[in-house]
């Protein structure tokens, strides 16, 4: 894939560029601020954007706002947003197809980072497991209806994993996963979801309350 990368910390930017190239991707541009990100995407028309949330000049949410601007101009542009800290407010804004939200610590889990990039590029929604954990904690009481195994499955669903991926992670059959998911949707009164993306959105909508 052709990637445009935005990260203001030079060492991390260079490290991410090297990691992306290690997995066979082409870094079309690596920039350090939001205006440069927008310009680079307009110039290179990448397959996916990877951007930090906080960048110059204000170090608030410039990267996130730039991502929304780009998706308004290029609907469906896959974007993977990176952040140092859990910002639960961003989850609501990022609940859309082809968008991911990962903590920067996740980059150290190289294969997980690569898998998340591929899922977002394919139109999926990916949320960092730590964000999911904090959202689960906020909605603790309703989740008491779930068994420990169902809570495991719920967390993996919210990460954007398919039934097959969940089955591999938990070392169970896909039929068992489907049964758990049916039970979760029933216990939490979630609307039916006909594909993986709608299922993730339903779960995230529930978790953020």
List keywords for this structure.
single chain, elongated, alpha/beta, 209 residues, 6-stranded parallel sheet, 11 helices
Q: How is this structure best described in words?
A:
With 209 residues, the protein is an alpha/beta fold. Helices cover 55% and strands 14% of the residues. It has 11 helices and 6 strands. It has a 6-stranded parallel β-sheet, with helices on both faces. Helix 2 runs parallel beside helix 3, helix 8 packs across helix 10 and helix 9 crosses helix 10. The longest helix has 14 residues. It is elongated, with a radius of gyration of 17 Å. 36% of the residues are buried. The model has no long low-confidence stretch (mean pLDDT 83).
What would a concise description of this structure say?
This protein has helices at 10-22, 34-44, 62-73, 88-94, 110-121, 129-138, 140-143, 148-158, 163-170, 174-187, 196-207, and strands spanning 2-6, 26-31, 48-52, 79-83, 99-103, 125-127.
Q: How much helical structure, as a percent, in the residues?
A: 40-55%
User: How would a crystallographer describe the biggest sheet?
Assistant: 6 strands, parallel
Tell me the Rg in angstroms. 17 Å
Spatial ordering of strands, largest sheet: 2-1-3-4-5-6
How many helix segments? 11
N to C succession of SSEs: EHEHEHEHEHEHHHHHH
Secondary structure layout plus pairing:
Blueprint: E1 2-6, H1 10-22, E2 26-31, H2 34-44, E3 48-52, H3 62-73, E4 79-83, H4 88-94, E5 99-103, H5 110-121, E6 125-127, H6 129-138, H7 140-143, H8 148-158, H9 163-170, H10 174-187, H11 196-207
Parallel strand pairs: 1-2, 1-3, 3-4, 4-5, 5-6
Helix pairs in contact: 2-3, 8-10, 9-10
């Amino acid at each position: 894939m052709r990637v445009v990368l935005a990260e203001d910390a030079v060492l991390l930017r260079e490290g991410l560029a090297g990691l992306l190239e290690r997995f066979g991707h082409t870094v079309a541009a690596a920039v350090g601020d939001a205006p440069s990100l927008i310009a680079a995407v307009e110039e290179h028309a990448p397959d996916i954007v990877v951007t930090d949330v906080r960048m110059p000049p204000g170090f608030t949410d410039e990267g996130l706002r730039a991502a929304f601007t780009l998706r308004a101009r290029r609907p469906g542009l896959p974007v993977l947003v990176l952040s140092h800290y859990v910002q639960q407010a961003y989850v609501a804004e990022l609940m859309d197809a082809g968008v991911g939200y990962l903590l920067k610590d996740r980059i150290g889990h190289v294969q997980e980072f690569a898998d998340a990039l591929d899922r977002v590029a394919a139109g999926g929604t990916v949320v960092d497991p730590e964000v999911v954990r904090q959202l689960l904690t906020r909605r603790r009481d309703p989740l008491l209806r779930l068994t420990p195994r169902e809570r495991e499955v719920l967390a993996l669903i919210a990460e954007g994993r398919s039934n097959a991926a969940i089955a591999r992670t938990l070392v169970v059959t896909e039929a068992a996963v489907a049964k758990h998911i049916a039970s979760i949707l029933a216990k939490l009164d979630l609307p039916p979801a006909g594909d993986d993306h709608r299922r993730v959105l339903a779960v995230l909508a529930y978790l953020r309350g």
